[in-house]
Design goal:
It is built from 9 helices and 7 strands, in the order E-H-E-H-E-H-E-H-E-H-E-H-H-H-E-H. The chain has about 260 residues and is of the alpha/beta class. The chain has a 7-stranded parallel beta sheet with strand order 3-2-1-4-5-6-7, sandwiched between helices. The chain is globular.
Length: about 260
């Protein structure tokens, strides 16, 4: 009897990094559960892409900020497949507000921070217990290097920094039960979402400070996420892995003080 396909649940997988990760997981032999909130057509399109490439996938609707919706989705996945081997928490629950802190309303600020954490919290609470019971599982949270930024990104930065800390608590609680948890923090990725906030000057600035000579693509991100989700990455636990195409290193090298250290 052949081994059943491993199952990967990916939140926010109808577009961007989530969609690219779903396709990559499909190519690696996983049955992919493509979670989406509203865009049924986009989610079904990702499923079609995976199946045309010889993989296996399905779309599942749920707003991951809603604990009841998440619980129902996870119960159905377990009922149909009896397993979730990999959980990738990727959903962008609330669009980031790029405004200075002192001009942000409390509702806007806490909406971003709370939405980010709710999506991670409800998925984690519903999936981890069964992973622990089975003694195996992988969780990858998708974060951003924006957690380290200051300026007109206070809500976004705070939300991502909180997610990074949350993920380490999950890693500490789950590791003794065979569940490995890590976070991947990406610099700006060229997606539909980022296109709306990047002007030409900022895009050139980002490209010039990349060892790739270009912005990260969803496919770059997907390959990294899948690598972290594989068993071969098992020695890393509770890490926040920065993926920025060398931006941070080159930024320090290009800094005006660099000449003093050559």
């Amino acid at each position: 009897m052949s081994e059943p396909r491993r199952v990967a649940l990916i939140s926010g997988a109808s577009r961007g990094i989530g969609a690219a990760t779903a396709r990559e997981m499909g190519r690696r032999g996983y049955h992919v559960v493509v979670n989406y909130r509203e865009n049924t057509a986009a989610a079904e399109g990702v499923v079609d892409d995976i199946e045309r490439a010889g993989g296996s996938a399905e779309a599942r609707q749920a707003d991951v900020r809603d604990g009841e919706q998440v619980g129902e989705m996870v119960r159905k996945v377990y009922a149909d497949h009896d397993r979730i081997d990999v959980l990738i928490c990727n959903a962008n629950t609330v669009n980031p507000q790029f405004e200075p802190l002192l001009s942000l309303s409390w509702d806007t600020f806490i909406g971003k921070v709370g939405g980010e954490l709710a999506g991670a919290f409800f998925l984690t609470r519903n999936v981890v217990p069964e992973m622990q019971r089975r003694g195996a599982g992988r969780i990858v949270y998708i974060s951003s290097t924006a957690a380290d930024w200051v300026g007109s990104v206070a809500a976004h930065s705070t939300a991502k920094a909180a997610l990074n800390t949350f993920s380490r608590h999950v890693a500490a609680a789950a590791a003794e039960h065979g569940v490995t948890v890590n976070t991947v923090a990406f610099a700006t990725v060229a997606t539909e979402a980022s296109a709306g906030v990047l002007d030409d000057e900022l895009r050139r600035y980002t490209e010039e400070r990349s060892v790739l000579g270009r912005m990260l693509t969803p496919e770059d991100a997907a390959r990294t996420v899948v690598a972290v989700a594989e068993e071969s990455f098992g020695a890393a636990v509770g890490q926040v892995i920065r993926v920025d195409a060398g931006y941070d290193v080159l930024e320090h090298q290009l800094h005006s003080t660099a000449k003093f250290y050559r």
